[in-house]
């Protein structure tokens, strides 16, 4: 038996999906978290379900956006055995519009009235029995976050499987209200009739008084979404949080560095000189270890993102920035793609690009896809952290805010340029739901942090490990039998050295990058974190005779005579803008169904990165 979870954005479908299947899919207090189907199985000893599908959130069964197309196509073409319609009990009128459309499909339906606890706190009293009688389908009140009502929902599914509940059908009152028994009607008049029916239904089944929490939320929004005070509040929130994150992560990073340095000393003492020792220390330990040392920073950034998501503040940020986005020819909904990709810090461009499916204008969607990779993803974040710790230790929070603002400015400017030239066209109006403010749950924050940090660590143990070992080979071969004093010459004669040295004169003049950094930048096309591991490997080989050196790559760079602030800033700008990871190029190809745009992305990002990094390097060199 196949079950489809269907509901409005931000109604809690994914939370119910996780509760029913014991999964850990990402949830957030803003619309658009789910942008493609998720599949799982019901975890119950006495109910055998072949498949539960969490479909993207939609407001209706139209086909204006990609998420609506996915959901409508599945429901009509695949015809699931049962629909679980997830409804936000605290916003009944809006949610029931989709419910009515689902009932018209004549597919058996159970209504999971989620957030019933929130509705009660908002002084919304729902007669669930009366509502069930009116709609002729089971209505199960639940609070999925705390798993209240999930048992009753599982029982209702079991009852359906045993044919104890009839197929869904629409009451005669609805048929009379919408004119379904009198032939085809005009779509607009039918929609109005549906809302009239919903209002009468709510009047019968719901009683409410004005909630103190609701009034407080509205008061907060007057300030939080204000044209002037809203953006200032946003910066005031980010500044101390960034400062706290860098301070706390620095302590944890020092601890990890100490452990890795102790392990390095142990291997130095107990392994015989040779290929295996060099591969383990210079390749694996210095390479992957350099990436892992930034795990505390990544984990704390994920907590920050989780707080902003779960509190409901993310939608307010989108609302505030809509006015700015219009100047650049973008729809306000595009903001979510940028934020998911790392607009605040610590996201990923792959889901950011996939989130463009919610945009209705194809040209606008493409403009967002091509500029989303400029955001500060989780791969770039530790690289920025490396440079910030080395060259801006006293102003780490300020440096991170400056990087975030610059990435936004460049992304919007280029999106605007694309919309004025090759992707010109009209901008769609912006409509967004502002969910109520909610206190983030400790469990939710820790779960999100654990999942995303684990993905980062797994990446270090797979993609980054393989890339690090490949570049260790390139840096070590062909072997040149030279004295220790001329090791620099030996490195330049390796395969990696030859590649980096070939473009060294140009890159050194343009933005101060030497052959070692060139090699790291080329490696970063596989994954941005590899930049750290490659630099760690090259610097560890160069100084391997020094037994007392610090394990931290940041300290190595800060103490190197080859590096200065101008070069560090140029590198940050270049890494922010240059060719995105291979996985990002792959998803652009998948979403556009063409190789044209990934190839275009490679060339235009490399060109833009070179120009902007060169400007940064020479301007800072002149004035510093």
């Amino acid at each position: 038996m196949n079950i489809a979870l269907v509901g409005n954005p931000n109604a809690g479908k994914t939370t119910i999906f996780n509760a029913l299947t014991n999964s850990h899919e990402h949830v957030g207090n803003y619309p658009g978290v789910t942008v493609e189907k998720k599949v799982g199985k019901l975890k119950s000893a006495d109910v055998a379900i072949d498949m539960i599908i969490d479909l993207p959130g939609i407001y209706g069964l139209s086909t204006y956006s990609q998420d609506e197309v996915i959901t409508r196509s599945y429901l009509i073409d695949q015809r699931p055995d049962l629909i679980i319609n997830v409804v936000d009990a605290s916003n009944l009128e809006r949610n029931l519009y989709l419910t009515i459309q689902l009932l018209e499909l004549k597919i058996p339906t159970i209504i999971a009235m989620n957030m019933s606890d929130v509705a009660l706190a908002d002084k919304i009293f729902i007669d669930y029995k009366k509502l069930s009688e009116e709609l002729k389908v089971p209505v199960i009140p639940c609070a999925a976050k705390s798993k209240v009502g999930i048992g009753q929902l599982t029982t209702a599914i079991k009852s359906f499987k045993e044919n104890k509940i009839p197929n869904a059908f629409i009451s005669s009152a609805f048929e009379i209200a919408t004119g379904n028994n009198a032939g085809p009607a005009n779509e607009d008049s039918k929609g109005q009739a549906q809302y009239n029916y919903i209002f009468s239904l709510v009047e019968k089944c719901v009683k409410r008084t004005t909630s103190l929490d609701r009034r407080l939320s509205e008061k907060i929004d007057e300030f939080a979404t204000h044209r002037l005070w809203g953006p200032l509040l946003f910066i005031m929130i980010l500044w101390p949080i960034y400062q706290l994150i860098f301070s706390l992560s620095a302590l944890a990073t020092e601890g990890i560095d100490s452990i890795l340095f102790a392990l390095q000393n142990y291997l130095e003492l107990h392994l015989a000189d040779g290929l295996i020792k060099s591969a383990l220390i210079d390749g694996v330990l210095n390479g992957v270890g350099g990436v892992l040392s930034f795990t505390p920073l990544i984990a704390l950034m994920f907590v920050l993102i989780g707080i902003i998501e779960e509190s409901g503040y993310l939608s307010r940020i989108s609302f505030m920035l809509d006015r700015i986005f219009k100047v650049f020819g973008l729809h306000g909904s595009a903001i979510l793609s940028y934020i998911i990709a790392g607009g605040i810090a610590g996201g990923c461009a792959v889901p950011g690009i996939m989130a463009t499916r919610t945009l209705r204008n194809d040209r606008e969607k493409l403009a967002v896809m091509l500029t989303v990779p400029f955001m500060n993803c989780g791969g770039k974040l530790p690289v920025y952290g490396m440079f910030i710790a080395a060259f801006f230790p006293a102003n780490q929070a300020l440096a991170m805010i400056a990087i975030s603002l610059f990435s936004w400015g460049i992304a919007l400017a280029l999106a605007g340029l694309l919309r004025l030239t090759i992707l010109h066209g009209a901008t769609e109006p912006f409509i967004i739901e502002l969910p109520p403010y909610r206190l983030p749950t400790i469990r939710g924050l820790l779960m999100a942090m654990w999942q995303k940090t684990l993905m980062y660590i797994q990446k270090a143990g797979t993609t980054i490990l393989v890339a690090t070992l490949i570049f260790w080979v390139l840096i070590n071969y062909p072997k040149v039998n030279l004295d220790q004093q001329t090791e620099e010459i030996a490195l330049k004669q390796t395969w990696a050295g030859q590649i980096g040295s070939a473009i060294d004169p140009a890159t050194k003049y343009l933005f101060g990058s030497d052959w070692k950094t060139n090699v790291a930048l080329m490696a970063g096309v596989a994954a941005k974190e590899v930049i750290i591991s490659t630099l760690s490997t090259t610097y560890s080989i160069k100084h391997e005779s020094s037994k007392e050196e610090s394990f931290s790559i940041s300290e190595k760079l800060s103490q190197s005579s080859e590096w200065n602030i101008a070069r560090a800033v140029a590198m940050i700008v270049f890494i922010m803008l240059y060719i995105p990871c291979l996985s990002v190029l792959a998803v652009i190809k998948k979403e556009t169904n063409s190789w044209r745009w990934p190839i275009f992305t490679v060339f235009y990002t490399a060109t833009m990165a070179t120009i902007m990094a060169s400007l940064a390097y020479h301007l800072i060199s002149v004035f510093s």
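The radius of gyration is 28 Å. Residues 28-32, 181-185, 541-551 have pLDDT under 50 and may be disordered.
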